[in-house]
Amino acid sequence: MPRMKVTGVGMYVPDRVVTNNDLSKLMDTTDEWIVMRTGIKERRYVPDGMTGAEMAARATDIALKEAGIEKKQIEAIISATLSPDHTFPGMAPFIQDKLDLGGCAVMDIRNQCTGFLYSMAVADAWIRTGLFKTVLVTGSEIHSTALEFETRGRDVTVIFGDGAGVFICQATDDENTGVIATDLHGEGKYAKALWVEAEGQVFHPRLTHKMLWEGRAFPRMKGQLVFTHAIRRLPETMNACCAKAGVKIEDVDFWVFHQANLRINEFACQALSIPPNKTLNNIDKYGNTTAATLPIVTYEAQKKGLIKRGMLVGFATFGAGFTWGTMLMRW
Ligand code: ACO
Predict the structure, then answer these.
(1) 52 and 164, same domain (yes or no)
(2) In principle, which of 204, 232, 291, 325 could form an S-S bond with 139, CB 3.0–4.6 Å?
C-alpha cells in the first residue's frame, strides 16, 4: 500500500506588519499584555483585494519548486480554512481556478486550527487507497477583515493573523518515509466556546442589523476554557499518536505545534519533557493563522535546518470545535 509523503512545502504571508502597539491605538490593550499572555509581537494583515485563494496559490508556487513537479500533476486540492473567500462554494474551487487546474478534485475542510491536520489525514487516506497520487493540501486564512477592532473584541482580535501555507502530498512506496500514525479528536459540546454565531442558517433571517450591532458576527472565545482544554488535550493526543506508531515522545526528532498561544506550547513541552530545540515557535511574528499555521511553521523550520529528511516529525494542534490531534511522519 502506498504511503503519503510531503514532497514540497510553501508559505505566503502579506507584507503588511501590524504590531501590538498599532492595535493599542484602536482598543484598550498593550504590547506588554499581549506579549506576556500570548507571545505575539506582530501579525500580518492582507491589503485590500488580496484573497485567501491568491495567498494559497502563491504558497503553492513555492511548494511545487521544492517538490520538483509540474502543477498539472496535482490531482486533488483540499483547502482547510475557517475564512473562505465566500460563504459558498468552498475555497478549494477558487484556489483551483487561480492555479488553472480545472478538472481536478476539490474539497474544503472546516476544522479551524485543526483543519490542516484533518486535511492531511484525508490526503493520506486518499493516497493509501490509491485514489490519487498527488494531493495539494492548503491552509489559507484571512482573519483581519472579520475581527472586532474595539475593546469588546480585544481578547480575540489580538491573537489572529493572516497567511497561507501548503503541502504537496505524494504517494511513495518507500516504507521508511511518510505518514506513520494519526490521532484525531473532537468534542462538540464546546463548539460555542470559540465561534462566530452569525450569520447562521438557524436564524430567520440569518443575519440582522441587531445581530451585527450586538457583535454576534465577530469571533467570540471563552479564552480560559480553550486554554485549559488545550494544555490537557495536546499531551494526551501526542502520547496517543506515539503509542499508535510504537514510538516514545523522545524518539520524535521535531514537533510542529499549532501557534495559538506560546504558553500552550510551553505547557505541552514541559508536560512531555520536550526540549526547546525540538520545536519552533513563530507566533511572535504571525500570531495565530489557524489552518495555515502548521505548514508555515514547517516551512520556516525546514529553512532553518531544524527539519531534515529522514527525521521523525510530529504535528500537534488544538482548536475550535473543540478539535485536536497529532500526526507522525518520517520526513
Ligand atoms: N488586552 C488587555 N487586556 C485584555 C485583553 C487584551 N487584548 N484581552 C482580555 N483582556 C483582559 C480581560 O478583559 C480580563 O480583564 P478582567 O480581569 O478585568 O476581567 C483579563 O484581561 C484576563 O482575561 P482572560 O481572558 O482571563 O485572559 P487570559 O489569561 O485567559 O488570556 C487569551 C486570554 C490569551 C486569549 C488566552 O485565554 C488564550 O490564549 N486562550 C486560548 C486561545 C486558543 O488556544 N485558541 C484556540 C485556537 S483558535 C481556533 O481554533 C480558531
Answers:
(1) yes
(2) 291
What is the number of the ligand 1 atom nearest to the C-alpha of 29? 1
Closest CA to 206 of 214, 220, 219, 217: 217
DSSP state of 193: G
78 and 221 share a domain? Answer: no
265 catalytic residue (yes or no):
no
Q: Examine the domain organization and report whether 234 and 107 are in the same domain.
A: no
Pairing of strands 42-44, 17-19: antiparallel
Domain residues for the domain of 168 are: 3-172
- Residues 92 and 78: their CA atoms lie apart, in Å, by 6
What pLDDT shows up at residue 209? Answer: 97
Of 155, 234, 290, 317, the one to substitute when testing ligand 1's pocket (max ligand atoms within 8 A of C-beta) is 155
* R_g (Cα) of the chain, nearest Å: 19
Residues with CB under 6 A from ligand 1: 29, 33-34, 37-38, 112-113, 154-155, 158-159, 194, 223-224, 226-227, 230, 260-261, 264, 288, 290, 319-320
Q: Are residues 156 and 187 in the same domain?
A: no
- Residue 104 designated active-site: no
- pLDDT at position 152 is 97
Residues 14, 149: one domain? yes
Q: What is the DSSP letter of 72?
A: G
Identify the CATH number of the domain in which residue 206 sits. 3.40.47.10
Whether residue 266 sits in one domain with residue 224: yes
Q: What's the gap in Å between 223 CA and the centre of ligand 1?
A: 5
pLDDT of residue 104: 98
Beta-carbon contacts of 311 under 8 Å, excluding residues fewer than 6 positions away, are 253, 254, 330, 331
Residues 139 and 265 in one domain: no
Residues 199 and 163 in one domain: no
